[in-house]
């Protein structure tokens, strides 16, 4: 409308529309792959169409432990309540069959001519209260059993056995839920990002792991797996293909001493799935590196496991973790505010295979890095020198007392010359 009314020229409108179309990306981004393991260690997996649901009831204790807290508390309450109601009905039937509910027996009981099975049980409410007293061993003294009914003695023994079983199962279930191993794993932290840099002349995949508690993880070990979609030579598609990759450890065993945050290193060699991946290919790779840390909790002796994963977008090429452990007054201090901080370092952008075939690439990269570092130092020194000269000149202009006066010298020939001192 504005172009038709000649308020804005038509040529300007067409140019603006073309510029807006150029800004919009014509190629859609690659759809982001779903993570197999989340950053907090949870498995991103949904089980569907399970027909044999009865297998969960065969291991009822593990099923109860795996339930959510609200479901566990409901089952805990209903198990006791249902058992109380069930045995209350049995006590009421025993009293009814013996005739304790007949009003004519109340006067006979007071005259000691009639002995009931359970004293003071005249209704279902009193039978329910007596059931609670029997199962939780609360005795108020008003209701008690007599030797009149052998059936009542049998019901008493049965209720005690059932009550002990319910107590053992439900209390054990709640204890296991409060002392689950993954609760200890909440204080085992991993760096949000992993890095690839040169260490000892080799390209290495590295990440940092730490423990926030003072109680240690005994016999801690770290495993790394690569999960990717692969296709076999026969044409079979494996959506989740897991490949173990070795972890560089100077010790003979795979155990680590996790007393302070450590940088776990994987050397990218011929055995590594990352051997043919360069810096340019990393962003196009559809892979996920899963890190698993296992160990025994020192205080409880329970085996715990902490997990995390790194996708291609979370791997920084040519970076290195900054040191966070310092010695202060005879004590090693760990600064967790710098736990995931990295710095950029010189690293070849080629793959590990190309680096093994042409070792000169690493030498050239280090030389270029050294030259750039020297040039930056020269520029920095020259800038400091120029700033100091400008500062001194500005001080001379602003302060007249710093200006050096001119002094005349008389030579023996009698000529005069002026110079500055």
Automatic annotation (TrEMBL):
Bilayer disposition of the protein: Multi-pass membrane protein
Keywords from the named record: Ion channel, Ion transport, Membrane, Phosphoprotein, Potassium, Potassium transport, Transmembrane, Transmembrane helix, Transport, Voltage-gated channel
**Any stretches that span the bilayer, and where are they?**
73-94, 151-175
Residue intervals of the Potassium channel inwardly rectifying transmembrane domain: 37-180
Q: Which SUPFAM superfamilies match?
A: E set domains, Voltage-gated potassium channels
What are the GO BP annotations of this UniProt entry? potassium ion import across plasma membrane; regulation of monoatomic ion transmembrane transport
Which GO terms of the cellular component aspect does the record hold?
A: monoatomic ion channel complex; plasma membrane
Which reactions is this enzyme annotated as catalysing? K(+)(in) = K(+)(out)
Main subcellular location: membrane
Please indicate which superkingdom the organism of origin belongs to: Eukaryota
> In Gene Ontology terms, what is one molecular function of this protein?
ATP-activated inward rectifier potassium channel activity
Bias (Low complexity) occurs at: 384-397
Listed name of the protein: KCNJ8 protein
Gene for this chain: Kcnj8
